[in-house]
Amino acid sequence: MKIFSYQYNISIVAATNRIVHSPKDHSFTSINYEKKSDSCFQEEPYEHIEVVDRIGSGDAYIFGVLYGLLNYNMDPTKALEYGNTTTTLKNTILGDLQSLNKSEIDQIITIHKHQDLNLEMIR
Question: Whose C-alpha in 2, 10, 44, 46 is 20 to 30 A from the C-alpha of 29?
Answer without folding.
Answer: 10
